[in-house]
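Objective 1.3, modelling of assemblies. Example input:
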Amino acid sequence: MLLKSHASLRRFIDDVGTVDAVGIEERVAKFTTRSLKKKSKLFGLKLAASMIDLTTLEGKDTAGKVASLCKKAITPHEGMDVPSTAAVCVYSSMVRHAKRHLVGTNVKVASVATAFPSGQAPLRTRLAEVRAAVGDGADEIDMVINRGAFLTGELSLVQDEISQVLEACGDATLKVILETSELETYDNIRVASFLAMRVLRPGDFVKTSTGKTSANATLGNNQVMLEAIRDFYLETGIPISMKPAGGIRTAKQALHFLIAVKETLGDAWLNNTRYRFGASSLLNDLLRQIEKELTGAYQAPWNFSDATEGY
Amino acid sequence: MAKKITKPTPELVFGDLWEFDPAPETADPKLKKRYDLFINGSFVPPRSGKYFPTINPANETMIADIAQADAADVDVACKAAQKAFTSVWGKMPGKERGKYLYRIARLLQDHAREFAIAETLDGGKPIKESRDFDIPMAAAHFFYHAGWADKLEYLAPGRQLAPHGVVGQVIPWNFPLLMLAWKIAPALAAGNCVVLKPAETTSITALKFGEICQEAGLPNGVVNIVSGAGETGAAVINHPLTTKVAFTGSTEVGKIIMRSLAGTEKKMTMELGGKAANIVFDDAPLDQAVEAIVNGIFFNQGHVCCAGSRLLVQESVAEQVLAKLKRRIAVLRVGDPMDKNTDHGAINSREQLAKITELVKSGVAEGAEMHQSACRLPTKGFFFKPTLFSGVSMSHRIAREEIFGPVLSILTFRTLEEAVEKANNTAFGLSAGVWTDKGSRILKMSTLLKAGVVWANTYNKFDPTSPFGGYKESGFGREGGKQGLLDYLKQP
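Predicted structure (tokens):
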């Protein structure tokens, strides 16, 4: 049994190709040396703001906390020409609260589901959570894959579960969290990306992390997934979207990720239907940098309304 | 009857949705209007009074006048070096010599920014390369050899070693300061004194290095820089006082030097041309291979002797690799070398541009298929688009001659034996690259390939500790590491 499953992972790697860790890290280091000035910087900052899934995922979340998060998502900064964030991302129990505030706006409600972040619940429980969240009005569902099954080589089980969650989503967009830090190798991240993409619909997402483990989105795992999306798109014509999440706290980091998108997937992915950031404190740093670009002066952090620091 | 619907092939769009604004490096490179010769610790005008202009290849504007040394100037320089060797440097304990080298290394770091800008102005390479590679690597060579200066007895245990005396060195224009460091650092660490001639089109950083020597308090005459063209180099190499000669440059000039020195007692090391094979097997990590292929041929506009100018791809993945390469070069930013976002700068000189253009024409005429990125080139200055040739065969000129420009020739192979046969079927043998996921194949290839350096799953990796040099017409002798240092020492 073990031999057979090992062989299936090996076969999958042969099928989708391998990743050289040293090489990919050299590639992404080049993104960090790009120098953005003036208009191009402002464009990047605003674009990044429009791509945020403004997130709170804490045990202490309340309806009140979610309400203030929603207001921040709609109007990130009073009096500043800056777009709303793409979505608000909450636990499934908070979906109905978020929905109340976001109905009629262009900010989507995203819900983590499937026993986030571990995914260690029976499949029927996970599916029930997805249905409940969609029933409460979630536009988007962020699921976690079964990493245990992946690492024991039961790749078809991983894929089947994704398909079943997809079915439970109905019209809601699905984001598949690979939890890259638990897959550990770049080869595994590439395999998991293809496993997911082969059952997803155009416009569904693959996502790096839950934000709940020690290592989250990095330029390296982002790049592996962008290249997987590119190869899959060129092979099938199906555009899959991408969401790095966790650990992206500064405007500078966000710009590096966007440069990777620009130079890997091109212009068609430079919008919030194809690319998102799972982040919270990132928003205020973007606002601070936008303010600086517009006025030439840095404002103190307390001049910006509270963004959740939960991620 | 149902009409057959042909779906358009999906393609990526690398357009101008998010254009980068210019990001020029603007610091002051602290240049002089006129550069004299650096002889015996001070800057002196050439006896002939002749100067030649040096220009910025990116916009053809004049930067400075450079002194032209003739045989008489070279004679003064060689005598100054000989005097410094016998009176100070040759006798100085290694520990003390090391201190000077450390000082030079630190001063290069202190002045890194102005050196980087000067290098880019004078040579046309992108500022990010001179800033992140050339200058830090030049400093690293001085640091490495500084450490050797007092440990020479451990270099080759059991052997008695002594410096040669005066070393004549001639360097090329592709990595002006770095090649100077490769030459001067080991020579000084070993206890030699130096007369160095920089390339005609890129003398500025070498002469600025003279200022570093002054600031470091290096004894007069230990380092002498004589600028000029081919005749100046010939004078350095043929001068009776230079007992060792080190040359980096074209195979053509290397041959001339070897002919002129045949029958003399002079020791030589030659680092000459290359036509490296970068070999990609079907199990390679293709995206990273593509990245390194691009780095291998377009780094420094392909003005690299170890450039991976022949790509050998296994037939089963050839189409895929070509498609990936085309997409990759679509996002290379070509243009003003001083812009921090430029990936691909200016060709070093009008002559080199003409040579590249001529060889590319021959590639088209001989039937290879040319692919160039759609980038716009500046109207002034010497620029050439990153160029790929597919369908190249071994008899094409672009597969045999060193182009020394941003031109990649793509060939295919079926088996390992065929790859080795094609890779070794060249007059050169400086470097090679192997891409495969199979470790044992890497080891096998590294023994079969007749190249001084074989990179595995990477390309263009340099380190002061690693010897660099070639087989066949790529030259002899090594630079860097213990082997490189040994070439600057002799039996007493």
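The first helix of chain A runs from residue 2 to 16.
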